[in-house]
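Our working data are protein records whose layout never changes between entries. Getting from the letters to the C-alpha cells is the skill we practise here. To make this concrete, we reproduce a full record directly below:
***
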Amino acid sequence: MQTALPREALQTYKSKSQQARVATESWAGRNLFCPNCESLHLKPAPPGTPVIDFTCPVCRSPFQLKAQSHAFGTRIVDAAYSEMIRAIRSNSTPNLFAIHYERDAWRVRDLIIIPHFAFPISAIEKRKPLAASARRAGWVGCNILLGAIPSDARIAVVENGKAESPRLVRERFARVKPLEKLPVERRGWTLDVLNAVRSLGKPEFDLSEIYSSDKALARLHPGNHHIRPKIRQQLQILRDLGLLEFLGAGSYRLT
C-alpha cells in the first residue's frame, strides 16, 4: 500500500476541499482492500449512490469513505442524524474507512476501518440544526463519537504513515466479526459493555471493576432498571463470542 496521494489532474480544481476529495477517492480506489475477504481491491460505487462509496467485488461488502486533514480526535463528522440512526437500527450501516491525510505532504497519515456492525446508538451524537439562513435550514447532522466505539473495532490500516499488512488487518477484523451475529436490537448493549471493559485499561478484571460503569451504562440505556444483571449477561455473551475468557470467581480476561 502506497501512502502518497495522487496529484494528477488536481490543477483543474481550485477548491482545496475538492482537490482533497478527488485525491483521497482516487487513492482509495488504488489502494484499499477488503478486510472481510481476500479481495485486494474495492470497486467504486456508481456515481450518485447514497452513503456507499465502494463495494467489494467478491463478498459485496459496502464501504463508506471519509477523509479529513486533521488528526482523529473524539469525533468524525457524519451525515444526517436520522439517517444514521435508521441505518444502525435496520442493520444497513456500511463499513467506514476514515482517512487522516497530511495536506502539506499530500499523503495518508492514518487510516482506520470501523466494521458496519460496530456502531452503537451511543456513538452517534446529534448536532444542532442548521440556522434558518442556511441553504438546508433545519437540517440535523451527526458526529460519530470514536470513544464510544470499542478500540477492538477501530482497526488501524495505516498508522503514523506506516501501512499495516492486509493479513493483520483481516485478523483484527475477523476477531470482532462474531459481533455481527448478534441481533441488531441487542448489539448496542454488547458494544457498550465491551467499551466499558476496554476503558478499564487492563487485560484482566473482575465484576466489581466493571460494575463501576453501571451509572454510565444506565445513562445510555435509561429504559433498563436492572443494570448489573444486564452487565453480567453481556459479559457472558462476550465470552460466548470469544472476546472474553471467564477465569472463575467473577474474574475475566480479554482474549
